Amino acid sequence: MSIVEKIIRNNIRNLVPYSTARDEYSGEQAVFLDANENPFYTGVNRYPDPSQSKLKVKISQIKNISYERIFLGNGSDEAMDLLIRAFCEPGIDNVVSIKPTYGMYKVLADIHDTEFREVLLTGEYQLDKEALLKVADLNSTLLFINSPNNPTSNSFYHEDIVYLLDNFEGIVVLDEAYIDFSQQRSFMDSLDNYPNLVILQTFSKAWGMAGIRLGMAFASRDIISVMSRIKYPYNINKLTQKFALQKLDEESEKNAWVKMILEQRNILRLKLMKLEIVREVLPSDSNFLMVRFDQAKEIFNYLINRKIIVRDRSKAALCDGCLRITVGTEEENKALLKALQDYKS
Ligand SMILES: Cc1ncc(COP(=O)(O)O)c(C=O)c1O
């Protein structure tokens, strides 16, 4: 039995998806009297392509994966939501994940009345793979892992992720939101080996398009087909599709940004480590730094007064005293360093 057959919710298996007017006719030149739109041209008076064909063709070339194995969502958050919706029976199934990690996994599980079983990372912020398998039971349908991990900023060992893919009995959702900044290679090349693997990536980070809300999921045709059947019909709006299509032609710009951000990250880390108020800067494999201070809360408030906004992560597990700082432009990073140098406790 395929993994999808094994864990899909009954109501989703039996669902008759909504069929849009644009599903029935996809040509471009026609008299469209089928969708109750306003016929007067505004640029956006027509509904967008529900299957985002042009965008997927382009992404399939960039990512070297077939069109049918791509799902596009209103941010990768949408893909996470749909995976839980499809594969977790509310009140019965559970999701396994790590702690600390990206907060939306738990929020989405809570929304779907799905138990969220968290396993603390090790002291080195790595996966406790045996503990993750141990908390799983027959109702553990999804395992969420984020590598590089937000907020700890490090990547997990490749072989630990492989171990979980080999041994976890449900679907492993590997969130690679920060993969463009990482030294580790993506698992995209392993998709063929693992029918239980879903990879999430996003245009919100390295690609510089957080404002258009566009995320990707890559997986087997079976899994992508389930997600596509249950999504909102027009989940990616026309402006987003148009903007992304243009930007995808500029991959070299994205690569240049990544290079600059990584250079800045390394400079910022070294300079932060020299400050007396900084206890530690965790090694980062992403575009942000976890910085441990003796007086995190005070420094957080002080920075706000200086109009420099960072994220207080001092309450997260294993992150006591830590502020999460996104790497900015050279000027922004200099402003941050200057403010921290000026800080008097
Ligand atoms: C690990 C991780 N995944 C996903 C997201 C959100 O991605 P998107 O903007 O595509 O919804 C974030 C945002 O901070 C994140 O840290």
Structural write-up:
The structure is a single chain. Strand 8 (278-281) and strand 9 (288-293) form a beta hairpin. The protein has two domains: 19-240, Type I PLP-dependent aspartate aminotransferase-like (Major domain) (Aspartate Aminotransferase, domain 2); 252-342, Aspartate Aminotransferase, domain 1, CATH 3.90.1150.10. The chain has a seven-stranded mixed sheet, with helices on both faces. A four-stranded antiparallel sheet has the order 8-9-11-10, with helices on one face. The chain has 345 residues and is an alpha/beta fold. It is built from 13 helices and eleven strands. The chain binds pyridoxal-5'-phosphate. Pyridoxal-5'-phosphate (PLP) binds at residues 75-77, 102, 146, 150, 175, 177, 202, 204, 210, 215. Pyridoxal-5'-phosphate (PLP) binds next to helix 5.
- Look at the structure and give the mean pLDDT: 97
Strand order of the largest sheet: 1-7-6-5-4-2-3
Could you list the spans in which at least 5 consecutive residues all have pLDDT below 50?
none
Strand content: 15-25%
What gyration radius follows from the Cα positions, in whole Å? 22 Å
Order of helices and strands: HHHHEHEHEHEHEEEHHHEEHEEH
Q: Quick one: how many beta strands?
A: 11
What's this, in brief?
By secondary structure, this protein is an alpha/beta fold. It has helices spanning 3-7, 10-13, 21-24, 53-63, 76-87, 104-111, 129-135, 158-167, 221-230, 238-247, 251-274, 296-305, 330-342, and strands spanning 70-73, 94-99, 115-120, 140-146, 171-175, 197-202, 215-218, 278-281, 288-293, 311-312, 322-326.
